[in-house]
Design brief:
Blueprint: H1 2-16, H2 21-31, H3 39-61, H4 69-92, H5 98-101, H6 105-126, H7 134-168, H8 178-201
Helix pairs in contact: 1-7, 2-4, 2-7, 2-8, 3-6, 4-6, 4-8, 7-8
Length: 204
């Protein structure tokens, strides 16, 4: 049990560490279009992301697939840019909120991008293995999920605060409600930061 808890702690610390800011920014990008009432949509998207990164994490740490670190570190910010652009497309549409965020496309994107992030987690976890992998793999994955819940909770509260601030300064309108302004502002910042990281990490 102590070994399991050790790896759960490692997983949580990894996702919450400042050096994992790329994974945190991706979670912010995922959450940026949602309101508190959209919890069902959020759960579908996060579940898809979890399945995606769990699959690649398991395949990579068991040696089933080998993924070059330089390529993965480049692709992670690319996924953040793509998710941010997806947000901007939704924000530019006529309908925002639940109608715009539901459906199959966003969970599918989250699942595919989760495959990339799982490889990033594996690169870290591989350095910790000695011989057996079952307990470290399970514990680390549980820790990652707990860390993600912490990040999403903080992101949700922060996004709500942004909405309240937008309403308070009275810049919202019928065409540009607080949700749309927040979606565009947060997503634009996410895209700019992630694009900078992608350029820095380009493997060529």
């Amino acid at each position: 049990m102590s070994e399991l808890l050790t790896y759960v702690g490692l997983g949580m610390r990894h996702i919450l560490d400042i050096e994992a800011m790329d994974h945190i920014l991706f979670l912010v990008a995922l959450a940026a279009i949602y309101r508190a009432r959209d919890i069902r949509d959020v759960l579908w998207v996060i579940t898809a992301f979890t399945v995606g990164h769990s699959v690649t994490l398991a395949l990579a740490v068991t040696g089933t697939v080998h993924l070059p670190s330089a390529v993965i570190e480049f692709l992670i910010p690319v996924t953040i840019v793509a998710m941010g652009v997806e947000n901007l497309v939704i924000g530019a549409g006529r309908r925002i909120g639940r109608a715009a965020s539901s459906g199959w496309r966003r969970p599918m994107l989250a699942g595919v991008f989760g495959l990339v992030h799982g490889a990033g987690f594996a690169n870290y976890l591989n350095d910790l293995f000695v011989d057996h992998i079952a307990i470290p793999l399970f514990g680390f994955n549980v820790g990652i999920e707990l860390g993600q819940l912490v990040v999403l909770a903080i992101a949700g509260v922060s996004l709500f605060a942004v909405d309240r601030f937008i309403v308070a300064i009275r810049v919202a309108s019928g065409r540009w409600p607080a949700l749309r302004i927040r979606m565009v502002a947060v997503s634009s910042l996410v895209v700019l930061v992630a694009a900078h990281w992608a350029i820095e990490r380009a493997p060529w």
